[in-house]
């Protein structure tokens, strides 16, 4: 049963934590390192992250790695998260967010090579709205509790936005189209990739999930949907939900990486993952901001989103599952929309102006 949690889902697949006995710095920013499956110089990568001043590294691992025992002694600030069977990318990042205890985490891939020198403290400071008041944890020792309780997501974050994504270049130093804008043609929703050329350009989702995340906001948003196995729809689901719920994802020119090869092509085939994405993000209806609707007690309440029943028949006609499963899936997502109805501050049309206005300073 793929029930969508109304809050952050901590029902993770089994994993083991090895290493991470020492903290490298106290910037408020840790690095989360994922691997696409190829081989990369792990030791050199960890050393580079150490020199960049990240508090520590969470290295997400699956399969057999016979060098971890050796690496954990050489790099005591690296915490290895070992999965028996590799879960999808979104689940791995959700686990990293739960394991992290810094206000920010930077999701990176092992085949990213920094073009500009990475400076974790500078990155964290650039994203601050107000000073990070750290009753900062000791640099020598990790705290025993690594999974603090979820905070009140209504509290004002000191950081500028939910996620800031880096600029990526290929081996020819060409900026890759890693930003994405929404495009509506009639009743059809499409995405338009583009190469960001200005600071703080908005993007619909973090490309390849790479970026600096505000951990509290990420958890408050619910993280990535584990039930979406298509990376493209999983990342787009997260990003569009963020914009619909009033968060922002923007690109920065000040953090740049090169790739040995062009980025892997994203598979945007409209499959079952797309249908789930559609029901959660495109189908909900919301009244215009500022309007009010009658509440059950006769008073007025702020406008909210709901998933109309008329969306069921198109869903049934396009899904590969039978009528009973389709009805169950539709009801599940309808309940999720209802539980989060007050969190929707925009519909898809309401976020379009973000791509037609100057970027914030």
Task: Report on the architecture of this protein.
The protein is an alpha/beta fold and 361 residues long. The protein has 2 domains: 15-259, Spore Coat Polysaccharide Biosynthesis Protein SpsA, Chain A (Alpha-Beta Complex); 272-356, no CATH class. It is 26% helix and 22% strand. It is built from 10 helices and 15 strands. The chain has helices at residues 42-51, 68-74, 89-99, 120-126, 215-221, 231-244, 272-282, 312-318, 323-339, 348-351, and strands at 15-19, 29-34, 57-62, 78-83, 104-109, 112-114, 163-169, 179-185, 188-194, 211-214, 249-259, 285-286, 292-294, 300-302, 305-306. The strands form 4 sheets. The chain has a 9-stranded mixed sheet with strand order 1-4-3-2-5-10-7-11-6, with helices on both faces. β8 (179-185) and β9 form a beta hairpin. α6 (231-244) packs parallel to α7 (272-282). It is globular. Residues 131-154 and 292-300 have low confidence and may be disordered.
